[in-house]
Amino acid sequence: MRRRSTERLLVALILSLTGIVAAVALGQAAVAMLVTPWFVLLVAGLVRTERQQPTMTITVSETRPLVDDTIEVTATIAAATGRIKASVSPWSPVGPLSREPVAPREIPAARFPGSAPTEATFSMPAEQWGTFDVGRVVVEVVEPYGLTRWTGVLHDPSPIRVHPTSQQIRSMVAPWFVRRTTGAHQSRATGRGVEYADLRPYGPGDSLRDINWWVSARSDRLWTSQRHPDRATDVVLLLDSFVESGHDVHALFGLAIEAAFALAESHLSVSDRVGLVELGGLVRWVVPGTGRFQLQRLVDALLATALYANAADRDLTLIGARAMPPRSFVLALSPLLDDRFIEALIELTGRGHDVVVIECDPVTDPTSTGDGRSAGPTAGTVARRIWSAERAMLRDRLAQRGLAVARWERGMPLEITLRALSRKRRRLGPMVR
Amino acid sequence: MTLGRPQALAAVIAAGLAGWITVATTTRFADSATRFVWFGLAIFLLAVVLGSRFAVGGAVLVALTGAAIEIGTVPVQRWDRSFAIACLWYVAAELAWDSMERRDGRHRSLAVDIERTREVATVVAATLVATVMAAALVGSAPPRSLVVLAAAVAALALGLVTATRRLLATGEPMSEPAEQPTRPEPAN
Fold first, then answer.
1. Is residue B35 part of a domain?
2. What is the mean predicted confidence (pLDDT) over A211-238?
3. Domains in chain A, CATH or no CATH each
4. Do the Cβ atoms of B72 and A17 come within 8 Å?
């Protein structure tokens, strides 16, 4: 912190000295009386100034809030006298948390030595998901009589990661391939499980609990029930971060991120290994894993994702082998606007991965004018219809390659999209093995 | 939250009152004193409107110069008049500064207002005591030469300036917060 003079000090100093000199020059003590308040102010202020500089700390109530939560930033200032002015400067290398200016505070300092330090608390709403910074808290301790002030800047370097409120998903898209570990996806193989699969004659080593007594009672031999075991799978969330001009790319990307959050949470809750691959201007990935820490890693990676315009060739050769285990279940989240990403999807299918695409739809209603009115046969409407037809053709092309695509738009429950994907996969591809 | 309008109005009223007392009680050189006072008032009004803290001090200096010119030419010293003018200008300046501080939309607690009021009241009370003491002591003070007075004033000025400089020299220079890692720049 640094001590600085205020306007009061300079004005009081100039007026006092001028008045005293004038009084001596004129030989009139009453002239000096005219500046007596300023002289008194100067003396009182200099006597009451604190030799010890104040100490300051900053604390943030929460570093991982949800969207619409309020974060409290508290500046704790230990100053013996004076009054404290604290304000938040929106300076930040990452991005300020609050776009609206935060009203500064002015509070008295702790009056007695040893009493609790003064706290200035600022409430900042977390308006959108992402990684942010609380900014700098500028603290000014004005000493008694306002002649001098201590100024300092507090900055908490730890980022604030605002999580989006994820949707609750009850049903999941069943993967084609499963791992040998226990999970929640029904395998086509027979073994120990819950879902009934088939009957076979009782053999040596079969458990008595597996004997189907209803069937055995109607025949002259024992029959055992076979069941589908529940297995886990490797899920890879493939995020399209290519920038395609002409659309509200940030809104589209936001849709993809929200869906990724919900999918990661739901698959991790049923013991699947979940990873993340960001394919776009930057290529980054999180190796699949399970558990709460993996969810934290995925959330951090998702919050750090951003759109970068890049004309360079980006393909799957850049992705590490561990990021995409063989025969993994790839959930692609994309507006399907960039050909490079579409080619990557087709290539993944060719490599033997089980790929489904959630299309984050850039146009919600092709016949809408955008202001709620029904559009007439204008050029814009015709263009939108052509656009819709092109999109339908693209979906058909992907379906021919064995890729199920379902649209998802803002305000629509993700579960509807997942059910649509399941229906399409039943028509398109093989059943679960 | 207040925009400081009541304080600004009170400051202008206090300054106007100080100016009126200066002009109304002028015995000689009325024109010179009046011109200085009205000019000071005009600067004061402008300073309050523009929010210039130094201009407020300048306005007080100009107005007090008018009063000092008038006092310097009168053989009889009127302590009560000097006290009233000095205190009114001081209160007007404090109110003007207060109104400027409130313009940034700061949440100011009641305790701070009470603290500020007490400080101003302390200064006024100390000025009253100093005035009474000066009025009592001036008659019995021994005669002094101009050299002694000048030396005393120089010593006082030097003491004040030195104390102020030493006071401001304490503390460490303010350090800027370190840059933290940012998101990677776009690749192209």
1. yes
2. 89
3. 2-48 (no CATH), 55-162 (2.60.40.740), 190-228 (no CATH), 232-428 (3.40.50)
4. no
